[in-house]
Amino acid sequence: MTSPCADSGPLHASCHCGAIGFSVPSAPTKLTECNCSICGRLGVLWAYYEVKDIVWERGEGTTVPYVWGDRCIEFHHCPICGVTTHYGGVLAEGAPSDPTSRFAVNARNLPLTAPVTVRRFDGRSSWTTLAHDRQWPWPDQPDVLDGP
Ligand SMILES: [Zn+2]
């Protein structure tokens, strides 16, 4: 049974300035906060989708990738406002993307109206989930309680 206040249908993700926009098919049921060297600095909350789930609306191909280390993941941000938009696998030049590969969305860019449980993932050391003790948006955030 679905909560009557859960978000349903496509949700439109946008960076702060609006240059980057895409939709995801539905609200996430779980978010991930990770403490690894990059996620901890970015302060993002990840919602996991697949490449085929994403419908680009604005700015496809214009996000700025950041890769390091073994170069298997690209973190992307808006070239104008700098907000992190997503991460995904690094493609060999000219290679088509696997439609089922992970496309991780920065959930802070999604207009979520119902709180979603946040999983705290210890990517810094143990590579395990430590707790599910938070929610985003905050349950006591006034504009969430007021609703759309
Ligand atoms: Zn932007």
Characterize the structure shown.
The chain is about 5% helix and about 35% strand. The protein has a single domain, classed as Metal Binding Protein, Guanine Nucleotide Exchange Factor, Chain A, CATH 2.170.150.70. The model has no long low-confidence stretch (mean pLDDT about 90). By secondary structure, the protein is mainly beta. It binds zinc ion.
SSE order: EEEHEEEEEEEEH
Q: Which structural class fits the helix and strand makeup?
A: mainly beta
- Count of all domains: 1
CATH domain fold name: Metal Binding Protein, Guanine Nucleotide Exchange Factor, Chain A
What are the low-pLDDT stretches, counting only 5+ consecutive residues below 50? Answer: none
Task: Return Rg in Å.
Answer: 15 Å
Distance between the termini: 22 Å
Give the proportion of residues in helices.
under 10%
Overall morphology: globular
**Helical segment tally?**
2
Strand content: 35-45%
Summarize the entry for a quick read:
The chain has 148 residues and is mainly beta. The chain has two helices and eleven strands.
Task: Lay out the secondary structure.
Blueprint: E1 11-14, E2 21-24, E3 31-34, H1 39-42, E4 46-50, E5 55-58, E6 64-66, E7 73-77, E8 84-89, E9 102-106, E10 116-121, E11 129-136, H2 142-146
Bound molecules: zinc ion.
Zinc ion (ZN) binds next to loops.
